[in-house]
Amino acid sequence: MVPPETGSEPAWWFAFQENKLLVCEEGSGVGLPILVDFSDSGLTPLSNHYLGSFDDRPCYAVEVAEGTIPPAGMNFEGLRQLYGRLDEDLFWIAGRAVQIMDWDRTHRFCGRCGTPLRTKSTERAKECPQCGLLHFPRLAPAIIVLVERGSKLLLARSRHFMPGMYSVLAGFVEPGESLEEAVVREVGEEVGIGIKDIKYFGSQPWPFPHSLMIGFTATYAGGEITIDDAEIEDAGWFSVDDLPRIPGRISIARKLIDWFLAKQEKPHEG
Ligand SMILES: [Zn+2]
């Protein structure tokens, strides 16, 4: 992605200290610094990546040194805590920015020959000047699937969830696997049931740290729930009237659950 040549117009700056974003406090919400040059904030950028444009302004990701004190009225905050407080479009651009910064930090040398990498100007990639190997940003595709059985849906509790929280099943796609095969395998491994009618639902970038969630719906086809103790603590069939605590609106998990609830014509409050 080629940055604009002028460099004289105000831009959005996504400035990170590790994985925390620099935000301006604006009443109950937060905003982002809009500056011609990031140095105008009084901070020194360590690296700079053009992200594209939003609202007719260019967007840049920059990194600042560990221990940098934010300017007055500004703070470094973790991305997840910013959902609902930062404009949603800016939030997802920040999700892109944090992944690019992380990739930049962790891909400095060629994995084949150890030579320092060179950033390509024509695409989001780094090239080894010695052996020519290309390195692209890391992206880990993961499937997420809502399984329905009549008026009930399958929800499970992972060992690392917050207390009382249940969600639909999800897991990473393995090399050589189609998305549909990953859906069948995950459901089989985690709860031991068979499914059918696998349909694409939608997708969502999930920058914690670098996933792409690909959502599906499916129908129960047979078997009894047998949980994989290593991954899952509890799983069961839930109806609209006896739902446990479910994930927040940021997630595609919630969009899947809301889709199912809407079909039952009883939207969940809260
Ligand atoms: Zn190399």
Q: If you compute it from the alpha carbons, what radius of gyration comes out, rounded to the nearest whole angstrom?
A: 22 Å
Q: In percent terms, what proportion of residues is strand?
A: 35-45%
Coarse morphology? globular
Uncertain segments of ≥5 residues (pLDDT<50)?
A: none
Major sheet size, sense and barrel closure: 7 strands, mixed
Key structural traits:
single chain, 270 residues, alpha+beta, seven-stranded mixed beta sheet, six-stranded mixed beta sheet, binds zinc ion
Q: What can you see in these coordinates?
A:
There is one protein chain. With 270 residues, the protein is of the alpha+beta class. 16% of the residues lie in helices and 37% in strands. The protein has helices at residues 88-106, 179-191, 252-263; strands at 11-17, 20-26, 29-31, 34-35, 47-54, 57-63, 74-78, 118-119, 126-127, 134-135, 140-149, 152-158, 169-172, 194-206, 211-222, 232-239. Strands 1, 2, 3, 4, 5, 6 and 7 form a 7-stranded mixed sheet that branches. Strands 11, 12, 13, 14, 15 and 16 form a 6-stranded mixed sheet that branches. The radius of gyration is 22 Å and the shape is globular. The structure holds zinc ion. Zinc ion binds next to loops.
